[in-house]
């Protein structure tokens, strides 16, 4: 029987040999990959010359040849992605037509059926760029039931970006929640994209929401929908026990610009959560120079939290001269506010009363 | 009993056998654990690849969900690299960020270079004073670059400078970046992904640090990635993959990342301020903060995560001489010892989850105890073999474990990192890196263990301070 030391030597030598073999494999793989990259680059260069006239509408889409094979398709899609990124959606309509012509839709559906998660993610991303098509919408709706939460997010984003008429927010939210995808802030974007014209659906969901996270996301969606008629429902959320929900409700009210919420918001000036008071300051700044807003800002300028104080002082500076004078008087009692007044006065080129100037010089 | 009798005593022989066997078992166990790390890191690499599509980056660039970030750049006598470093940060692809450079009482022309290069003017800025740090002498800004602020303060060390920057930061997330480092233009957008995917539970995220030596740097950006040409730098390049990247990916898998390099790490500002900022009087302030965060989360019952993300890269200039490298490594070891000592109550404490039960005990065993035994083994085993006390088989087994396992780990780490991150495209670069991964096991790793032992000794002697770290500048380093 072999001794333990001999076994140990054999294991070490075996691992060494395995590592060297893998290193050689890596070299071979990289060599092959470099070759494939070079081929894709050549194909991309050829296609760039063909695509530019089509994008500029100088040639019809039908002048483009059919894509032959997976490698060429990948090269063309990479090129289209670069062009889309570089031109920031400028040629979006032409890109949709080109994708349809070269078989991008079929390729995207094929990717969605792949057993590899990265391929399904890419499939969703590709279909997000294609034109209106019920079959594609259906394929993406099916992807909303994918085992992976990431794929569900990507599918929901694609549906929202395509403005698919078949989107039902309750189903989408449920699909995302099932895989814990609601935790991601990317869902905010999805809801904001899908929100316009669906404020009733969002309001119903908000009324039935059971978790703080759901309420935060839905409130964000309401602000994107510009649902002014839902402002009372949003104002009601200011009483929520979660500071995140209260802050989100305030953000929504700020975006909606609802002056009727002023009374309710003014009671939040003493909210225990600094994040909420910060949002109150934002709301008040957006509502200034309304009298109530100015009063809120003056109160928040004396807040314990530096961020709240700073935002409020900048907010007061944007109000009127009278409010600024009031703040300067109040600032004398607090070195922290005096320092902020000094900062804001320089940044906004505002004058500081003489008595405060002496105080500032003393501080310096 | 005279010396000769004592030397021939069976008791001594048995004691040496026992000690050598213990060293061999510990070395084997250590390498086996590292091999497990290698296997654990692989799926984490693959998972991060699925999160890293370029389309996703574009989405994040235009998304309202991408949080604004304050970059904190502490600098002490950094006149050689500060301007280029800052130019690299100003070209970051990120929707909203500010850069706060903290001149920590430099004795060279760091501040003057900054003022001249960016046409800065002194401005009034309220100092909140939420954490403690040395007095601020002035704040500088320019209307041309509204997202750049330079804070000039009295010298107080890196932790002190970071505290000052954190106090003045206006965004909810802060990213500490070393002044002698270069960030890839997409580094920040890649690094914030965990904060977007898990905003409620993510406390901190660390990016990958890589060696810039050998690379081509142009206008503050690494334009061509090449391995270093000099041996000492090449070994460090391999070591950064093996010891830092792979290990941290494995820790990410087991939710117990305890080190986020001070050169590139993102933190939730409110949490750090609540904890009182970076700790003064330690040279391992980056690890200390992360361990303290875990401690706070464990005690307050928060569900939290600290991530290491492999693809955002921060490039740093590696020391090119053994003397400077030795100073750096002994300092790191002192920092580690200091953190472990400060938080010794977390060891084997279930309250702190995998950090208390696995990560910190592993550090104690493999980073404190093991280097001492490794150095002892390197002296003891060959001497005793040649004295005829240990058998040839034992000697070969010891060499196989020290060199064979090590070689396997170094090459394995390099292969996984290159396979997933694909930093080096040229075959000859991969060959050179592979050679570095093999050769580093014959001398460099042993030297590293010696520096660790020195670091432990210095810690016990209560040695403080960073020591000089002269920089050549990126162009010269490259």
Summarize the structure in short.
The complex is a heterodimer of chains A (364) and B (478). Chain A has 364 residues and is mostly helical.
Q: What portion of the residues of chain A fall into strands of 2 or more residues?
A: under 5%
**How far apart, in Å, are the first and last alpha carbons of chain B?**
62 Å
Report the oligomer.
Answer: heterodimer
Question: In terms of structural class, how would the helical and strand content of chain A be classed?
Answer: mainly alpha
Query: Overall mean pLDDT score of chain B?
Result: 89
What integer value in Å does the Rg of chain A equal? 29 Å
Helix/strand order of chain B? HHHEHEHEEEHEEHHEEEHEHHEHHHHHH
Classify the beta-strand content of chain B into a percent band: 15-25%
Low-confidence stretches of chain B: none
**Strands of the largest sheet of chain B, in order across it?**
3-4-5-2-1-6-11-8-12-7
Structural class of chain B: alpha/beta
Total number of helices of chain B? 17
Arithmetic mean pLDDT of chain A: 89
Order of helices and strands of chain A: HHHHHHHHHHHHHHHHHHHH
The chain pair with the largest interface is:
A-B, 48 and 50 residues
Could you tell me the radius of gyration of chain B in angstroms?
Answer: 23 Å
Q: Residue share in helices of chain A?
A: over 70%
